[in-house]
């Protein structure tokens, strides 16, 4: 296939949104790492200079990705997967420790984070396995294999420790679901989260009362000849109650204090103003400062390089995980909404692209891309604006970080490459 | 369904985020005002508060430098507490307590650790302070009083409270503001404006340079110096005369309305309310609940005016044409109202206006008062006319002088009596006490002085005021420079003034004459009551005197109100004559009288109602 036809067929809307996000992201990194002493944007010793370098590297990688044969990605996905798992394993011996997590290889000029690579290849491998003609997702054994593909990197990443990255892989369950995983898996997941949160907020007693009332309501309203079985319903309720009890146990005995504090901050459990103040100064410092920074931006924001909290470095890790708070402070509601809308458009466009694929592999990989990007975006922005507990993962295309940007770019553009080939594809 | 699910989740997440962001950035948006932004430190540069001089350019209030030891709790590193305490001259316990207090107030804002060091301590500490992180010395200036008197006019300054902070965004915690008197009234002029520098900080509270390159920074604006109308010497002299006496003295220059002295007894030394001992002294003064030194009697004490009020009734009667100066009334050492005899001390006989005034004949003025009402068909109508005339002298309302405290006094109206007695249940005979300045009418000493100045001016007055110059320029506020006319024609004043001059020459105040100075005055002796164990009990009369001098070209009009001083000339008259002599001649020729007035106290009178025993009133004992 000639380069020309790639340029003709590539989905330019996605490319534009991608470029917009990268540019806006860089502008905000520039602002949050800016010092009067080094105003030059091309100084590669500064963080924004380095990021600029990686933006260039990403553009180069886009060219390479687009130049490859489409079939290359599908064919070698298993190899990639195995290599990447070996790289994750290798961290236990050769890994470099930054901020308490052994997640990097020191390559001299930059640090490679193999878990970022693993996200791409796991999405590829899962798509490959599920699209295999012999795989039937309705079968328990195939479900197990699919889950194993997801679980292996998770198991390798958790001990680094990097629970945030590990969490990302679970989003790939969505791909399996899209391909026919029975609905009740999702239902159980949803129910578990619901019971977990409500138990923490209201306690087991209220959750039990609510459950019993719901069942009674069900009995009162149900028609005489309804075929909905009663026994399984009651047993689900019983399991839910047991789970609720275990939540308390786990929360109080298994979780560490910092985890408890994160949850109590998230769910606004702590009512004692003194303790709340204490949490705000310690474990909740980041969230509190980032919320305050966003709040202080108001509707129009304080203006580029005018964010006093950004300048004063009040929000720690602002150029990485908390980059969105810079948008909030300097560009206000207008800026934050613009970014949210850009991301939303990107995701909807990707769903549209995935659904129009004729090849199962391309569609499944597309779903993998969406799942991974979406969960990053959801958890990161949710954390920065205070609707989710603190989980440290970056905002795709936005946060400072070389390997992050490279692999998010690769993740996206491999899919765009597959998309350019959608019409020809026939195996 | 599986196809739509993901899109729905994407949209729901987007909506949730935008919802949360609009909550944060629109609904609970609190702009980081430059004053509230934690990332911006403000350094204030306080200007010196303006000096206050008297009418002759003598210094009344200046400034003294003071040094506070400040602490920023979170910057405090471990230190040798014992050594540091020795250096500061405080004990360890107090040091820890103050430090805890400062931390509770704010760990990152400076608090005062030890206020107002002496200059010597400052010199000793200055060098060593650098060794202690988180502590520094801040210079500020304190008020310095070059006089022990005039507290009632000058007022004092104190730290702003919650109300001040809410009322005026200029102030921040810990700043000073005028609390009463001139300091409060002319706060804006005296204070100037503080300068401010904005410094950008990082989250470790380190300065990282001026905020926005200093475009918001301002320079301090100096406080302006003012001259007030008081005569420092007269004020000090008057306060010495008030020694051991309660009451008020107000002296006004009739031709300008300038207040020459405004004295309240007992008073306090303004220096008491400065510095480290301020709050202890204030509480002492505040809790002194019987003599109430903080109560400014000159502008707040509402009492019956007594006989000086007779002059106004005479003026009203002349204006309404119901009497002439030659109209006579026979006094039977009293007069009859409603079949009941009321007493008079004038000695009885036939009185015309002149002798009515100088002998202060109650019968004459009762008759005159009734004549005013008899002119009209109804008492209501008469009351309205009388009230209008009396109020034109500035009575019964705030005069509009430039001190922040005051009382209206009371000039009763027909509405007042309708409520008091019922509609049409009263007549001029019911309210006959008004004719001699007793009964319901109430005035403050400053109103009484203004009334006297109005008579001295023959029918107009300038609103009394204490501000004379700002930065050397005379005030131009028309409120104080334009005369207010009374409703009485100028020609009616001469016979009254003649009567008042005769008070001095041959009347009730002939004992207080000053050589070479012709004075017009009027004595007053005011009956008053208190309640002891729920029994209404009469106390020794208040001694009242109003006067102006010289008669033909009045330079000073004065009212003296001495509580329980007995008859008018006994205390008030003497004190007024000494004040007038002091002001006009600069020195006192009657040394014996002066000595007596300076030394005599009325404490024995004030102790009577609290003695728990029976007591006599109006005794002739010196």
UniProtKB/TrEMBL annotation, chain A:
Transmembrane segments: 12-31, 51-68, 80-105, 143-159, 166-185, 191-221, 228-251, 331-352, 364-391, 397-416
InterPro entries registered for this protein in UniProt: FtsW/RodA
Top-rank taxon: Bacteria
Keywords from the UniProt entry: Cell shape, Membrane, Transmembrane, Transmembrane helix
Keyword 4Fe-4S in record: no
GO cellular component, one term: plasma membrane
Membrane topology qualifier: Multi-pass membrane protein
Gene Ontology biological process terms from the UniProt entry: cell division; regulation of cell shape
Molecular function in Gene Ontology: lipid-linked peptidoglycan transporter activity
Location in or out of the cell: Membrane
Protein name: Rod shape-determining protein RodA
Source organism of the structure: Ulvibacterium marinum
TrEMBL record, chain B:
Keyword Zinc belongs to the record: no
Annotated ranges, domain Penicillin-binding protein transpeptidase: 247-577
One Gene Ontology term, aspect cellular component: plasma membrane
Keywords assigned by UniProt, alphabetized: Carboxypeptidase, Cell inner membrane, Cell membrane, Cell shape, Cell wall biogenesis/degradation, Hydrolase, Membrane, Peptidoglycan synthesis, Protease, Transmembrane, Transmembrane helix
All residue ranges annotated as the Penicillin-binding protein dimerisation domain in the record: 46-207
Pfam families: PBP_dimer, Transpeptidase
Top-level taxon of origin: Bacteria
Classification via Gene3D superfamilies: DD-peptidase/beta-lactamase superfamily, Penicillin-binding protein 2a (Domain 2), Penicillin-binding protein 2a, domain 3
Membrane-protein topology: Single-pass membrane protein
Xref: SUPFAM superfamilies: beta-lactamase/transpeptidase-like, Penicillin binding protein dimerisation domain
Signal peptide from the UniProt entry: none
Example GO biological process: cell wall organization
Subcellular location, record wording: Cell membrane; Membrane
GO molecular function terms noted in the UniProt entry: penicillin binding; peptidoglycan L,D-transpeptidase activity; serine-type D-Ala-D-Ala carboxypeptidase activity
Keyword Cell wall biogenesis/degradation (UniProt): yes
Protein name: Penicillin-binding protein 2
